[in-house]
Amino acid sequence: MSLHMRLVTSNDFYSIKVRGYVTPLHLDVLDILYQPILGFAPTSLYRYLFATRDFRAGDPLSFSLLTQHLGFTYSQISGALSRLEALGLCRTYLIKRNEFSEYIIELLAPKDPSAFSNDQIFIHLLSDTLGPKHTQDLLNLFALDVATTMGDEVTSDFAEIYGSQVKEISGQDLWRGDRLE
Question: Of 57-71, 89-103, 115-129, 158-172, where does mean pLDDT reach its minimum?
């Protein structure tokens, strides 16, 4: 459910969850490809929330911490959250309590470079902001190296190295612990 023009206040609190794996590559994509679309405030807010995700874990934090640390107004924070939500970088849930409201902010990983470059809407927004040449130059920063075609490949084979260990695995040796999402 969307709350159009939601405005956080000094009486509101937030907590952070990270849903998905956010790697240094994702943060580079955020800084280089998303920022021209998002603007400085939303990008800074995302990076701050991600960096402080374990700060006082479990305790709701006052939005006044964000205004003091980042120097943003409550209106700028509200707008930044809306822009992050609109591009799929976070989801926000509201819990109203008697004394205050708590926003649970779930940060989502930015698209990887390939997914970003193949998203026609995102590429259009980036190109509309920066122009086609600059957009292509930024995408080229994430281009993978061309496969090596010279020389003979001498890479070790999995079976050569681990084959004897795998042959000895029986049903009782299989991992039974919790799996990750």
Answer: 158-172
In a 10 Å sphere around its CB, with 0-12 CB exposed, 13-18 middle and 19+ buried, how is residue 44 labelled?
Answer: middle
- Residue identified by tokens 């779930």 is 106
Residues 6+ apart with CB under 8 A from 66: 14, 45, 48, 72, 77
pLDDT of residue 4: 52
Angle in degrees, CA 57, 61, 66, rounded to 5 = 120
- Torsion angle of the four alpha carbons 101, 1, 20, 63, in this order, in degrees rounded to the nearest 10: -20
Residue 33 is given by DSSP the state I
Q: Report the b/e string of 123-146 with b at 16+ CB within 10 A.
A: bebbbeebeeeebeebbeebeeee
* Higher local confidence (pLDDT), 16 or 176: 16
Residue 108 half-sphere exposure, CB side, CA atoms within 13 Å? 13
SS3 125: helix
* 78 DSSP 8-state letter: H
13 and 103 in contact (C-beta within 8 Å)?
A: yes
Distance CA 103, CA 14 (A): 5
Tell me the per-residue pLDDT of 109-135, one tens digit each, with 9 for 90 and over: 999 999 999 999 999 999 999 999 999
Total Cβ atoms within 10 A of residue 113: 20
